[in-house]
Specification:
Length: about 140
């Protein structure tokens, strides 16, 4: 569940951005609903180039086939409440995981929720963070 304070903060930032500049093409941040990442690649200036499309089930229902390409610095995905959605989303990068874990189908996660890829296979500046799907390794802790 997303904290109410976080949602309020995000919507306030978006609202202030809209007040300062009504031209949406100039906004630094945006929420893009109901999209699937088709491809992701690194641009020449080290930002991320995403090709987005309408999710397959929506395309069939509405007979749509819209794709768009964005160059971004950061991406935050909200996948709903499907606890194992990361397995499908990250299926094509399983070969970058430590080999003994690929067979088990597990994604090793550090204390900061970052997926721990096999040493040297992924640039240390890049990363994928999982939240909400790894309660088995990252439960609630208390400090008194």
């Amino acid at each position: 569940m997303v904290r109410l304070e976080l949602l309020e903060h995000l919507y306030e930032k978006l609202y202030m951005q809209r007040l300062r500049n009504p031209d949406a093409s100039q906004w630094r941040c945006n929420i893009i609903n109901n999209r699937a990442v088709i491809t992701a690649s690194q641009s020449s200036n080290s930002s991320l180039v995403l090709k987005l499309g309408i999710p397959e089930e929506k395309r069939r229902q509405q007979d749509l086939d819209v794709e768009e390409e964005l160059e971004v610095d950061y991406v935050f995905t909200a996948t709903g409440y499907v606890r194992n959605a990361h397995k499908d989303m990250l299926s094509e990068v399983r070969s970058l995981l430590p080999s003994h874990l690929v067979k088990e189908g597990k994604f090793p996660v550090a204390r900061d929720y970052r997926v721990q890829y096999d040493e040297g296979k992924v640039d240390k500046r890049a990363g994928v963070w999982l939240q909400g799907c790894n309660e088995g390794t990252h439960g609630v802790s208390f400090h008194s």
